[in-house]
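Bit of a strange request maybe. I'm writing a small parser for structure token strings and I need a real example to test against, not something I typed by hand. Could someone generate the tokens for this chain?
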Amino acid sequence: AIPAALLLALLAWRGRPLLAAGYANLGVVSQTRTELGLYEHKQFATLTLDRVRQQVDLDEALGFFERALELDVTQASARTRWSHVAFDRADYGAALAQAQAAWEAGQRDRVTRLVYGDALVAQGRIAEAAEVVRGLVWADWRLQAQATYQYQVLDDPQRAAYAAEAYRLLTAGRDSAP
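Reply from user aminoacidic:
Good idea to test on real output. This should exercise your parser:
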């Protein structure tokens, strides 16, 4: 067991980021439990994650993310999770604000790059989005799915065209590009 004095010293030294990570993790658990509670294995192919996020109450999870960000504005999990929820709910301004804040804080991990790329495409910043996700596994597939499915379901032909153009830019010069 860790002595209480050592634990208090650790919290004093790294307290805010550590506590922020704890709140972000609570948000992740809350989000996951809420989203998975709606899944039905027989409807898995028709009840997509974006549709689940449009239907469920994620206020508790978003509250944990907000608390995490009050403690540490650079908390990457809170930013990217919040951005992805906003994106799936077609709140593209909020999606971009959260993803861009993570990006500006220096986050360059795969998840941040994908989420930031999604938000950039949704805002019509196509060339920038293609550069952000260039080199990532599944990035081209993700853009193609947005162009041919996600934005079609949302009846958003302008954003579907943005995603198709980002896909074209990302795959230009490849032998496998359609």
